[in-house]
Design a protein that fits this description.
Layout: H1 6-43, H2 46-51, H3 59-69, H4 73-86, H5 91-94, H6 102-114, H7 118-135, E1 152-158, E2 161-170, E3 174-178, E4 195-201, E5 207-219, E6 225-230, E7 235-237, E8 245-258, E9 271-285, E10 288-293, E11 302-308, E12 314-326, E13 332-341, H8 343-353
Antiparallel strand pairs: 1-2, 1-4, 2-3, 3-6, 4-5, 5-6, 5-7, 8-9, 8-11, 9-10, 10-13, 11-12, 12-13
Helix pairs in contact: 3-4, 4-7, 6-7, 7-8
C-alpha cells in the first residue's frame, strides 16, 4: 500500500525511469549489432567487391585474410610484400580466385630457386597452400560437357590400382578418352555398357567424381586406343586433397625404421634396418606418397624410403604407413605420410605439383 510520502513516490519514479533507459540502451545495442552485421555481409558480397575491385588493399584487409587463412608471421609478411611489389588492389576481391596470385608466386619461385633460398620457397608454398585451401572457388561442374579437353580422369578398377585416361575429344553425346600405354590387363578394361566412376581435378583444383557409361572401344589419332563414354550430369564434388600429387611410377627402396620407445618423437634418432625391400613409387606429394610392393606391411609402421622423390634426384625420407590396401593381384599399396624429408626435396615436389617447373627439369 502506497504511503503517499514524497520519498516513496520519487523512488518509484526513479525505478521506472531506470527500466526505460536500460530498455532503450539494449534496443540501441541490438540495432547497432544488426547494422554492423549487415555492413559486414554487404562488404563481403560479390556486388560490393566488384564495385571496389580496384580499391587499394589496406592493412586491415591483409589482417582479415591472414586470420581467415591462419597465416604465420612469415607468411603474412610475404603476402604483404607481394601486395606492395605487384601493387595488388583489393585483396579480398583478388583472392576470389586464388589463381590470380599464382603467376606472381611462380615468378617469385624462380627468383628464390635461382638464389637457392629453400626457406623462402617453403614460406611461398605454405602461403600458396593456405590461400588455395581457404579461398579456392568450388565451381560446380554440372555435366561432363564442361570438362576441359586435356583433363586426366583417373579410373580405379580395383583398390590400389589407378589409370589415367586423357580426355582428347568431346561432343554433345560422347567423351573420347585416350587409354594409357600401361593399360594392358584385359580384365581391367570395363565392359561395354558398364557404368564406371572417374575422378578428375578441375582447373580450380577441385576434385570431382564422374559416373558415366562405356559405349565402345576404338582407335584414335596416331593409332591410339580410345574408350568412348556417354556424357553425364552425374558429377559429385569431392573434398580437396591436403597436397597436390604427381604420378611417378619409379623404383625405390624402403626398409623398417627402428627406434627405441623413448625416441618416438625424435625423428633424427630413427635408424634404418639392414633388411631392405624393393618397391615402386606410384605417386608423391609434399606430404606423402604411395608405394607398390609385394609385402603385406601393416599400417602404423615407420619406414625409410630412398628413391627419386622429385622424379630426378635420389633422396631419403622418413614416413609412417597410415594405410595399407591390397589389390586383386595380391600386391599391396602402402599409403605413407612423410615425417621427415629434406626441405629442398619437399620444395621441388611442391614446384612440380604447382606447375612451377616441369617434372623432367
Amino acid at each position: 500500500m502506497n504511503s503517499g510520502s514524497p520519498l516513496t513516490a520519487r523512488l518509484e519514479f526513479n525505478f521506472s525511469a531506470f527500466f526505460i533507459v536500460v530498455t532503450i540502451i539494449v534496443v540501441f545495442i541490438v540495432i547497432i549489432g544488426l547494422i554492423t552485421r549487415y555492413l559486414r555481409i554487404y562488404r563481403d558480397s560479390a556486388a560490393y567487391l566488384e564495385k571496389k575491385k580496384n580499391a587499394p588493399t589496406k592493412t586491415k584487409d591483409i589482417v582479415e585474410v591472414s586470420k581467415k587463412a591462419k597465416l604465420s608471421k612469415a607468411e603474412y609478411d610475404y603476402l604483404s610484400y607481394l601486395i606492395k611489389l605487384y601493387k595488388i588492389p583489393n585483396l579480398k576481391y583478388f583472392l576470389r580466385d586464388p589463381k590470380n596470385i599464382d603467376s606472381y608466386l611462380k615468378e617469385q619461385y624462380k627468383l628464390l630457386d635461382k638464389d637457392m633460398n629453400e626457406l623462402g620457397k617453403t614460406t611461398l608454398f605454405n602461403l600458396r597452400t593456405k590461400l588455395f585451401k581457404t579461398f579456392g572457388n568450388q565451381i560446380l561442374i554440372k555435366n561432363s560437357r564442361l570438362i576441359p579437353l586435356g583433363t586426366y580422369l583417373t579410373f580405379t578398377p580395383s583398390q590400389g590400382i589407378h589409370y589415367q585416361f586423357l580426355l582428347s575429344e568431346s561432343n554433345q553425346e560422347e567423351l573420347y578418352l585416350t587409354l594409357p600405354s600401361n593399360f594392358i590387363q584385359p580384365d581391367e578394361k570395363p565392359a561395354i555398357l558398364s557404368k564406371i566412376d572417374l575422378i578428375f581435378v578441375h582447373k580450380d583444383s577441385s576434385p570431382y567424381k564422374l559416373e558415366t557409361r562405356v559405349i565402345r572401344y576404338q582407335k584414335g589419332k596416331n593409332n591410339s586406343d580410345l574408350i568412348v563414354c556417354t556424357q553425364s550430369d552425374k558429377i559429385t564434388l569431392l573434398p580437396k586433397r591436403e597436397s597436390e600429387r604427381i604420378e611417378l611410377m619409379k623404383p625405390c627402396v624402403f626398409c623398417h625404421a627402428k627406434t627405441s620407445q623413448n625416441n618416438q618423437n625424435n625423428y633424427d634418432l630413427y635408424i634404418p634396418s639392414e633388411q631392405k625391400h624393393n618397391g615402386t613409387l606410384a605417386d608423391i606429394s609434399a606430404g606423402g606418397c604411395r608405394i607398390l610392393t609385394n609385402l603385406p606391411i601393416k599400417s602404423g609402421q615407420y619406414i625409410f624410403i630412398e628413391g627419386p622423390l622429385d622424379n630426378k634426384n635420389l633422396d631419403k625420407a622418413l614416413g609412417i604407413i597410415v594405410r595399407t590396401s591390397q589389390t586383386k593381384y595380391n600386391t599391396f599399396v602402402l599409403h605413407v605420410k612423410f615425417l621427415k624429408i629434406t626441405e629442398k626435396t619437399k620444395n621441388s615436389i611442391s614446384a612440380i605439383t604447382s606447375n612451377y617447373k616441369n617434372i623432367e627439369d
